[in-house]
């Protein structure tokens, strides 16, 4: 591209990285001074409180990385169009680059803003990078969107390879003078009273460098045996990359290409299983792109007639990890303590809320949005609808997880439960997933008094299952 002395604004959003950042690399090729910008928008920012904590630390990391290149990061708040107009007027910038986002509010903002800026005579370009492939270009043979995961996976696996990830720029040309930036501390993204995120740093370090380290550690460690190990929550057998992907500290293309050429050392089924998880994220965005109300409306509208219960007491017990079912309670307490939850346990707790308690999946989805550091508009909505049976290629509603059997199968020694439900720490393994069946002498030995130190089950599994199936049968009558 032709070199120009006018500044280029690079608008960072869910791409808080320097490596494989196509908008940033295009700005370098453009030749002019670069003004990196992050806008705190009301409708297109972090999904909840936990992700605000992550964003704060990720912006600190990005600022430090940009400083090493001779640049810095501007922080501004407000309506994106108004912020950009102000910055363009102040700096004389005639070009704006950004990487595309795919949630409905973000897409609507970007479409209108791109047209407005072009009408004002500016050069505006958007780039890929948050996904492996553009959802508008992935189509079935008949030209429509995919509704079933397996053919979607086959299409991506056998199709064009994602672009090779690009290295980060070593230096960035700075403007002669820097516009005034807001102070990150003034945004008050971190909880203070109370500091409910105080334990997040036990397992999380936001930022691009940490994302790379996580990926390297996973490739060198847990990827081997991943297909089986990923289901056991007490094991360190998952990548822990989800929050880094959610805010774009690493690109999915970088993750995909890191798994190439490993078959000499790692079984192909482990590699394939991990890639399928990456493509499931892609499938969720494919669904959101073609069904923008995925978080609000049932994909299968026959579920619109479902008789959800309004049960605040049970919903509160579920949120606090006080249901009386240890595997459920461990998952919900892990979520509160660390802003995350093991994937197998996410399915268990979601099934419990929807099918044991008959509480609308949308309420669970909203709670996850606020409490997960990896909160994601596509994955959250699609996964909750998958468990509810109302989504695309969903698990049937009548598949109701037994929380006792799930715990015994995937946390056989009870290590996961003991870690996050310490009041059950001394309970012998035979009863760790069903303390309500333990003899009184066993409970006394473990220092447990049901109903006081640990709750009785808030619902009986067998009766809850029967109630759920009856509610589902009523829906089937009307369709």
TrEMBL record:
Cofactor(s) it depends on: FAD; (6R)-5,10-methylene-5,6,7,8-tetrahydrofolate
Skewed-composition ranges (Basic and acidic residues): 160-171
Gene3D superfamilies reported for this sequence: 1.25.40.80, DNA Cyclobutane Dipyrimidine Photolyase, subunit A, domain 3, HUPs
UniProt cross-references to InterPro entries, sorted A to Z: Crypto/Photolyase_FAD-like_sf, Crypto/Photolyase_N_sf, Cryptochr/Photolyase_FAD-bd, Cryptochrome/DNA_photolyase_1, DNA_photolyase_1_CS_C, DNA_photolyase_N, Rossmann-like_a/b/a_fold
UniProt xrefs under PROSITE patterns: DNA_PHOTOLYASES_1_1, DNA_PHOTOLYASES_1_2, PHR_CRY_ALPHA_BETA
Keywords: Chromophore, FAD, Flavoprotein
Pfam families given in the database record: DNA_photolyase, FAD_binding_7
Keyword Flavoprotein recorded: yes
Disordered: annotated segments: 159-178
Limits of the Photolyase/cryptochrome alpha/beta domain: 6-132
Record PANTHER family: CRYPTOCHROME (PTHR11455), CRYPTOCHROME CIRCADIAN CLOCK 5 ISOFORM X1 (PTHR11455:SF9)
Family indicated by similarity: Belongs to the DNA photolyase family.
Full protein name: Deoxyribodipyrimidine photolyase
Organism for this UniProt entry: Agrobacterium arsenijevicii
Taxonomic placement: Bacteria, Pseudomonadati, Pseudomonadota, Alphaproteobacteria, Hyphomicrobiales
């Amino acid at each position: 591209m032709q070199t120009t002395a006018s500044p280029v604004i690079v608008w960072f959003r869910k791409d808080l990285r320097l490596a494989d950042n196509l908008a940033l690399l295009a700005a370098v090729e453009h030749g002019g001074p670069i003004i990196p910008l992050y806008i705190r928008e009301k409708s297109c920012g972090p999904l909840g409180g936990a992700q605000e904590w992550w964003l704060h630390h990720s912006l600190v990391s990005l600022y430090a990385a940009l400083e090493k290149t001779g640049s810095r990061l501007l922080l501004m708040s407000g309506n994106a169009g108004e912020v950009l107009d102000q910055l363009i007027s102040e700096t004389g910038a005639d070009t704006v680059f950004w990487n595309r986002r795919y949630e409905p509010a973000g897409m609507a903002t970007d479409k209108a803003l791109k047209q407005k800026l072009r009408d004002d005579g500016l050069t505006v370009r958007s780039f890929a990078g948050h996904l492996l492939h553009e959802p508008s270009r992935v189509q079935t043979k008949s030209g429509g969107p995919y509704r079933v995961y397996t053919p979607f996976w086959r299409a991506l696996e056998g199709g064009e390879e994602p672009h090779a990830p690009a290295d980060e720029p070593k230096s960035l040309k700075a403007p002669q003078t820097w516009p005034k930036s807001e102070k990150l501390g003034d945004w008050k993204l971190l909880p203070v009273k109370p500091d409910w995120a105080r334990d997040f740093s036990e397992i999380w370090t936001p930022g691009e460098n940490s994302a790379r380290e996580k990926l390297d550690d996973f490739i060198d460690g847990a990827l081997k045996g991943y297909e089986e190990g990923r289901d056991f929550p007490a094991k360190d057998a998952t990548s822990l990359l989800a929050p880094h992907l959610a805010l774009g500290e690493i690109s999915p293309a970088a993750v995909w290409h890191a798994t190439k050429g490993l078959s000499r050392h790692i079984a192909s089924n482990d590699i394939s299983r991990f890639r399928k998880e990456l493509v499931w994220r892609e499938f969720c965005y494919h669904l959101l792109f073609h069904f923008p109300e995925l978080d609000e409306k049932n994909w299968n509208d026959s579920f619109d007639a479902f008789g959800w219960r309004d049960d605040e007491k049970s919903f509160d017990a579920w949120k606090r990890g006080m249901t009386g079912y240890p595997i459920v309670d461990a998952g919900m307490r892990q979520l509160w303590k660390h802003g995350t939850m093991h994937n197998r346990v996410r399915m268990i707790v979601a099934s419990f809320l929807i099918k044991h308690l008959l509480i609308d999946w949308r309420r669970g989805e909203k709670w996850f949005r606020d409490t997960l550091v990896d909160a994601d508009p596509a994955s959250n909505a699609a996964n909750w609808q998958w468990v509810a049976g109302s989504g695309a290629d969903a698990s049937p509603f009548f598949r109701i997880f037994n929380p006792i059997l799930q715990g015994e199968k995937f946390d056989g020694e009870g290590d996961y439960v003991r870690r996050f439900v310490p009041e059950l720490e001394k309970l012998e393994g035979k009863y760790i997933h069903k303390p309500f069946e333990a003899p009184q002498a066993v409970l006394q030995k473990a220092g447990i008094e049901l109903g006081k130190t640990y709750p009785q089950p808030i619902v009986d599994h067998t009766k809850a299952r029967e109630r759920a199936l009856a509610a589902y049968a009523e829906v089937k009558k009307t369709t």
